[in-house]
Amino acid sequence: MNKIAILLLLFSVLLFSDTLTGKKVFETYCWGCHHQTAMAFGPPFSQIADTRTKAEIEAYINSPKSMYKAFGYKRTVMTQLHLNAKELDIISDYILSYKGKQ
Questions:
Q1: In whole angstroms, what is the distance from residue 17 CA to residue 86 CA?
Q2: Cβ neighbours of residue 79 under 8 Å, at least 6 residues apart?
Q3: Which of 27, 38, 34 is nearest to 60 (CA)?
Q4: H-helix or E-strand containing 69?
Q5: Spatial distance between the Cα atoms of 24 and 44, rounded to a whole number of angstroms
Q6: What pLDDT sits at residue 73?
Q7: Mean of the per-residue pLDDT values of the chain
Q8: pLDDT tens-digit profile of 22-53?
Q9: CA–CA gap between residue 77 and residue 79 (Å, rounded)
Q10: Who contacts 37 (Cβ-Cβ below 8 Å, separation ≥6)?
Q11: Which tens digits make up the pLDDT trace of 47-86?
Q12: Are 91 and 61 in contact (CB under 8 A)?
């Protein structure tokens, strides 16, 4: 292989090995309170996905203290997360991937 091909291959491996996934965002921010299909401190992603839209999920993650009443909750203990737009998009899609799963 020539040097350029080797450099491109190395760059591709580095680029794709650090790809942000829903599982990585979940493990970083959510796993302490939520599980994918089992009840933990907070509701499981399967329950959230069955009752919320992508926009509702993102709104609640962005601002739980201002959204809890709109969701019909008496209070919230959800931590204010400071996700960037990509992380928010990825985690909301990851949550929705559990729709209909028990």
A1: 17
A2: 33, 64
A3: 34
A4: none
A5: 17
A6: 87
A7: 86
A8: 999 999 999 999 999 999 999 999 999 999 99
A9: 6
A10: 44, 45, 46, 98, 101, 102
A11: 999 999 999 999 999 999 999 898 888 999 998 999 999 9
A12: yes
pLDDT value for 102: 76
Residue pointed to by tokens 């991937």: 97
Look at residue 16 and tell me whether its pLDDT is greater than 80.
no
Task: Assess whether pLDDT exceeds 70 at residue 18.
Answer: no
Polymer length of the chain: 102
Is the CB of residue 34 less than 8 Å from the CB of residue 44? yes
CA 46 from centre of chain: 13
Residue closest to 49 by CA, chosen among 86, 90, 84, 94: 94
Q: Which residue has the tokens 């019909």?
A: 72
Ramachandran region, residue 57 (left: φ > 0; alpha: ψ -120 to 50; beta: rest): alpha
With left for phi above 0 and alpha for psi between -120 and 50, is residue 100 left, alpha or beta? left
Query: Which residue segments constitute the domains of the chain, with CATH numbers given?
Result: 20-96 (1.10.760.10)
